Amino acid sequence: MSERDEVPYIVVERGGGQFGSFVLGALLGAGIALLLAPKSGKETQEDLKAQGRRLKESAEERIRDAQKRLEERLDAAREGVQTRLEGVKEAVESGRTAAHDAREELERKLERSKAAYRAGIEAAREAAKAPAETDGTNEEGDEA
Fold first, then answer.
1. Cβ proximity of 48 and 30 under 8 Å
2. Are the C-beta atoms of 62 and 69 separated by less than 8 Å?
3. Which of 1, 25, 82, 117 is surrounded by the fewest CB atoms within 10 Å?
4. What are the φ and ψ backbone dihedral angles of 16, each rounded to 5 degrees?
5. Does residue 141 sit within a domain?
6. Burial of 14 (0-12, 13-18, 19+ CB in 10 A)
7. What is the Cα–Cα distance from 124 to 116, expressed in whole angstroms?
8. What are the Cα distances from residue 22, in Å, to 46, 57, 62, 91, 132?
9. What count of Cα atoms within 13 Å lies in the side-chain half-sphere of residue 127?
């Protein structure tokens, strides 16, 4: 690696700084008002205190609004997740039910197959005995 690749750098992102811009504007406005206002020191202090209170109230209101919007978004996201979770649970349960039904059907078919196989074996045995008994000969071919 070259030295150039190892040089640290800083990324400055812009956007979303509405609150910071508001505070900066308020401070600049307060500074300009101090410089241009022909008031006494006590009056200026009272104005600054009042403006500080208004700024604080405004900031608190913005924070409350931001919290409310965030809570609303979180609630909507929770509802979406819950809805998807319920859908997945229903799909899993449907899959289990279908698998259980398919297994039962397969077991019934297997039992019918086994029964048919046993019946076929029994019929073959009976068929094998029947010719020997009907022609009057025993198994070695001797007449009885």
1. yes
2. no
3. 1
4. 75, 10
5. no
6. exposed
7. 12
8. 22, 13, 11, 50, 111
9. 6
The token pair at 139 is 């198994």
Determine the 3-state secondary structure of 79 from DSSP: helix
Per-residue pLDDT of the chain (144 residues; tens, 9 = 90+): 455 556 665 655 555 567 777 888 888 887 787 777 676 778 878 888 998 899 999 999 999 999 999 999 999 999 999 999 999 999 999 999 999 999 999 999 999 999 999 999 999 888 888 765 655 555 555 554
Token pair recorded at residue 123: 């019929």
**In whole angstroms, what is the distance from residue 126 CA to residue 115 CA?**
16
Q: What is the pTM of this model?
A: 0.42
Whether 121 maps to a domain, the answer reads: no
**Which residues constitute the domain of residue 80?**
17-102
Residue 57 CA to residue 41 CA, distance in Å, equals 24
Considering only CA atoms, which of 52, 61, 74, 70 is closest in space to residue 19?
61
> What is the domain count for the chain?
1
